[in-house]
Amino acid sequence: MPGLRTRFVRDIVEAFERERRPELVEDVLKRLEARLSQPEVRAALRSAAHADTLDVADAEELLFGLDAALSDGTGQLLEKLATEQFARVLAQGTLSVTGDLMASVARLQAPLEHLFVGLPIGFDLSKRRDGFVLFLGVSGRPRTARLLRHLTVGAVRAAQRFARQGMTDDVALDTEALGDRVRLEVRLGVAPTLAAQAPPKPPRKGPAPQRPSRPHLPTTKPTLEAIDRIIRRASITPPAMSPTAPDEIVVPRSRRPAIEAPMESAPPRSDTLPSLSQSGFVRRDDDEPESSSG
To answer: Model confidence over 89-111: pLDDT tens digits?
Structure first.
């Protein structure tokens, strides 16, 4: 029967009690016992020997149930407690390599595999230019792979603490669960984001100015009659215009008015006009002004 080391589960439960109130953890364990296959799991945890194992399904139910009841259920509290447990392992032996985080993580393969009894653990570590990538897997057990993911994140953080690599540089740790496989990527010397470097913006005083609203275009669709009218207008081609001067107006030949030749006036007839002598406008020499007599 596949299982998890009982003493490791007991240490994690005691870490939950130190992180939260012990009576709260005890109440959660009482409620979780109804879901477990083994009765009196609390007594089994207290009297656990070095080689005892707990059914892996019961161990998953206990650890995930405590994380959901005492935290937000994302596994962050479980990763924090796993970091403390693996830090104890690294402090007791010579597994950490100073200045080499990847080598320290590679040496943690044996402690991780020792926790799971009867379950082969896939462990594939590859180096990258800016860090390394670790692939883990538990064949056919997605929930166990999820538990292995949180425990491995705690182990990597404990190794970072003892290897003293990344203490001054920024370390990015990204994890992704794909069914029964886990991908864990560690990047070293990551530059801080621009958002962290930018100073906080001062608070605005008063209400924010309202931007003028843009006019909305009409959303009505043209009717068929309007479309036919537009097509008819577009099909009429204007008459070709000859290149002329801008100030010259060309009138079509059909619209030009008929220009008649100016009529010459006939000379006046002598019999129709009085002569100058008859009209009295011509002065004669023999006509002398009459002298007024005294």
So the answer is: 888 877 888 888 899 999 999 99
Cα atoms in the 13 Å half-sphere on the side-chain side of 80: 11
Residues 38, 114, single domain; the answer is: no
Residue (of 59, 37, 57) closest to 48 by Cα position: 59
Task: Note whether residue 149 is domain-resident.
Answer: yes
In contact, 158 and 117? CB cutoff 8 Å:
no
Neighbouring residues of 226: CB distance < 8 A, sequence distance ≥ 6: none
Domain with residue 168: its CATH number is 3.30.70
Domain membership of residue 235 (yes or no) is no
CA–CA distance, 51 with 217 (Å, rounded to integer): 76
pLDDT at position 145? 94
Residue 233 maps to a domain: no
Tens digits of residue pLDDT in 193-206: 433 454 556 666 55
Q: Is residue 226 part of a domain?
A: no
Cβ–Cβ < 8 Å for 59, 3: yes
Domain closes at, from 58, 73, 88 = 73
Residue 58, judged by CB atoms within 10 A of its CB (0-12, 13-18, 19+), counts as: buried
Domain count, the chain: 2
> Rounded mean pLDDT of the chain?
77
Phi, psi of 4 (to 5 degrees): -120, 145
Alpha helices by DSSP H, listed for the chain, are 6-19, 22-32, 41-46, 56-70, 76-92, 101-107, 109-115, 142-163, 194-197, 224-235, 276-279
Give the pLDDT of residue 226.
78
Total residue length of the chain: 294
User: Would the pTM of this model clear 0.90, i.e. be above it?
Assistant: no
Q: How far apart are CA 29 and CA 39, in angstroms?
A: 12
Last residue of a domain, one of 192, 217, 234: 192
| Residue 152 structural domain | 98-192
